[in-house]
Amino acid sequence: MTVRTKDCLLVLVFAIVALSGCRLGRPNTASLDGSSTTLSIATSGPAGSGIRLMPASSPDQKQVFSITHPSFGWRGNARKVALDYEVWSKVFPIRVSPNQASAETWPAILGTYFADPGRLSFEPRFSLQPGVTYRAEYHPNQAPVLANDRPSAIGRSEVSQKSISQEFSIPARPVVRSVVVRQVYPTINELPENQLKFYIHFSAPMSRGQAYDHIRLLDSSGTEVQVPFLELGEELWDPACSRFTLFFDPGRVKRELQPRREMGPALENGKEYTLVVSDKWLDAGGNPLVRSFQKKFRVGPPDYTPIDAAKWTLNAPRAATRDRLAVRFPEPLDHALLRRMLWVIDANGHRVTGEMEIEEGERGWTFSPANSWKSGTHRLVVQTALEDLAGNNIGRAFEFDIFKTDHKLGTVSLPFEPRKR
Hints:
By secondary structure, the protein is mostly beta strands.
């Protein structure tokens, strides 16, 4: 029985983001400027000028909610004090409005609480979103108070005071549709039954966190295929946020795994499908795509054969020219990996600088040097982690038995010599 060894390539290290603010457990805090200080909150008297939403002072800053009170203060010389999120989110929660939900059920947003003389403030972790309503609440009876320099339990106060709240609506930006799906790879229209992934390229950066809501796979009758993709909590974007990697669920790709036994493969040999990208997907500016995108394709037999680089064809360039080195493959290969897993070294072992291109259908790779080719034996170096459309590597199939296969990833090289003119 095969082992899901290669699934480790799909397991991501999810970033564990801690709640903003210091987990102090009591209002004796450390100040943001490094000095020691003890916070005290007066819970009687008017709330001064009430809750305000302060504008961002620069494009890289966020808007800040604040409430002023003449009795906010602390013993010590600190200018600003960081506060415990879990404690102060009960005193001064900021909530975002979901559709049609009552205010009592609005979720509190994450961020950082801090105090400076006469003011309690909250800075959201993420920028406030246009078109969204936020509700700021101030519950002074929830504020911790000092008794013999020790905080009392949350929910106690010396003098009761009414809670106040205020809603803030962030104006919606005008909708300006400008971003399109530029291409989906692979570009060919027949894919193996065990196709591993798609790359969706956009013309500009996109927003994060909503990818799987806007992608569907339809069969030939227009019926949506159920759960064909691997939906990761941490979406797979390139650094520019303009290329999204969409994996099929490996449990429905690999044979003998339970999801495939129960639901069958996501793609079936001989059938036709359509990948649909919705125009409601928002770009980085919060605007929907110009139009939806569809990729129609048919499915062929599964591919369980490792890549054999010895079957590639190299068309050597002429020496003393900047002609292209052309490499042809007997099958389409992974577009993104072709861009970074092949390079050329010269007769002295130095890497040759230049520009590469991937030919239509991902069946070819070309390289144009920055300077003219020199004589002598050059080498095309290829990482064996390169994949075909089904995830097979050079010398190793996507499905292999780790106990029977001894294969380490590395590189292979294919020699060529620039032709004399």
